[in-house]
Amino acid sequence: MSEKKLGLLYALSAFLFWGLTPMYYKQITMVPPFEILAHRVVFSVVVLVFLLFISKQFNTLKPIFKSLAKMKYLIFASILISINWFTFIYSISVNKIVEASLGYFITPLVTVALGFLIFQERVNKAQGIAIVLAIIAVVYQLATLGTIPIIALTLAFSFGFYGMVRKKIAISSIPGLFIETIVILPIALIYLNFLVQNEQSVFNTLSSYDMTILSLSGLVTVVPLLWFNAAATRMSLTALGFIQYIGPTVAFLVAVFVYDEVLNVNKLITFTLIWIALVIFSLDGLKRRKA
């Protein structure tokens, strides 16, 4: 198999996995979101320690810990990804997978907008139109429903800023994610210990099957990220950009057709505006790539 085909396989696997992830978290909705997040951090560290060991990358950690600049960025990244993880888990627990998928549709547009506002990067006419359409979609939902899509915006901006922070530092995925998770590991352990001491831990009341499912949260977190990084090294960013919309599209379909989440006309109009914006955004990227 050629490197391009292998990259395509990795990319499809990663984004299909992410799109189906709500079905995993639906299995453990009896556990409060904060407790799920804490366990996710703990089990992710376990998986990452194993991966660091078999890939012989432990020696890459010491220089990172010694760099104050890199550690500041990684601590900030840790906070952002924790917010993103919690918001996603929460959205599933309150049956708002549709809004979560909207957030990940908006994310690429937010990334471009942040680049323009913070780093003074140039935004061409097509990108500007796409961003304006996304803003109109959010404003439309606010006007028609009377509510701000907090979940969607939190997911989009937390992941958008997270991507920008990680772009600032040249650290490979496994060591970087390991440090991000161990930064919040003490908080997760303190919180889990508090639950146990006050007999509020839901984990201790679960069946063996449910405990096993929750214990897989580390693999659910790490595996698709590794597939994504394997794809990124083998594919063009333009091709990867098109494929990334598989994730939120699958999540959207799962929400509507598996879990019967309501899709009214106003939500459909909001999504239509976002999809039009993404088409413009993606075609512009393809055009510039060819040029």
TrEMBL record:
Look up and give the membrane topology term: Multi-pass membrane protein
UniProt key word Membrane: yes
* Pfam families per the UniProt record, alphabetical: EamA
Q: Which UniProt keywords apply?
A: Cell membrane, Membrane, Transmembrane, Transmembrane helix, Transport
Q: Where in the cell is it found?
A: Cell membrane
Which ranges does the record mark as transmembrane? 7-25, 37-54, 74-94, 100-119, 126-142, 148-165, 177-196, 208-228, 240-259, 265-286
Please state every residue range assigned to the domain named EamA: 6-139, 150-282
Q: Would you say which domain of life the source belongs to?
A: Bacteria
InterPro entries (alphabetical)? EamA_dom, EmrE-like, RarD
Protein family: Belongs to the EamA transporter family.
Q: What's the protein name?
A: Protein RarD
Q: Which organism is it from?
A: Malaciobacter canalis
Q: Lineage in the entry?
A: Bacteria, Pseudomonadati, Campylobacterota, Epsilonproteobacteria, Campylobacterales
